[in-house]
Amino acid sequence: MKKAFQFKAIATFVIAFLISATAMAQGGKVPASPRETVTGSINGANITIDYGSPAAKGRKIYGELVPYGKMWRAGANEATKFTTDKEITVEGKKLPAGSYSVFVTLTDKDAVVTFNSQVGQWGIKGGGIANEDPTKDVIAVTVKTKSAPMAERLKYVISSKGSNWFGIPSQYQ
After folding, report:
1. Cα dist. 7→13, 17, 91, 112 in Å?
2. Which residues contact 82 (CB under 8 A, 6 or more apart)?
3. Of 26, 62, 118, 159, which alpha carbon lies 20 to 30 A from 12's?
4. Based on C-alpha coordinates, what's the Rg of the chain?
5. Taking a C-beta distance cutoff of 8 angstroms, is the pair 69, 107 a contact?
6. Is residue 102 a contact partner of residue 130, using CB atoms and an 8 Å limit?
7. 172: closest CA among 65, 76, 82, 39?
8. Rounded to an integer, what distance in angstroms lies between the CA atom of residue 155 and that of residue 52?
9. pLDDT for 85-134, tens place per residue?
10. Contact 87, 95 (CB under 8 A)
11. Strands 88-90 and 45-52, how do they pair?
């Protein structure tokens, strides 16, 4: 009986040690910009947006950390990936079914959203320049921006408003 108790105690200790060692090896914390995925259906097209969700951390994002007039990867780390299983119309322009990297160039009143056929790349090059190859741009559309309540993390929403729609990230302010 005593040996069985000792074996269980040692086995429990070893399992606890392995779990804590694994957690420490992985950093034991949530990434600063965790990957997020949002899915939805608009007019029969299944849409997925996969992006890194950075936190505001008290910073003013749009116009400062993400400067106006400079192309941005529309998220953190890898370029934001937009996938549709059917051709869709974005602001009057046709976007074929497929996967695209999304880049955004903001002003204080609107944004140019660029869908680029190159996917899987890191979102920026040296010097903070977007890792976007203009020869692979499929469409670019201009959308009006709207202010929204402060949000700590970037969040995309897929919504439908008649025939015009676009998933708009929350405004960090």
Report:
1. 10, 15, 67, 64
2. 47, 48, 49, 99, 100, 101, 102, 115
3. 26
4. 22
5. yes
6. no
7. 65
8. 9
9. 999 999 999 999 999 999 999 998 999 999 999 999 998 888 888 999 99
10. yes
11. unpaired
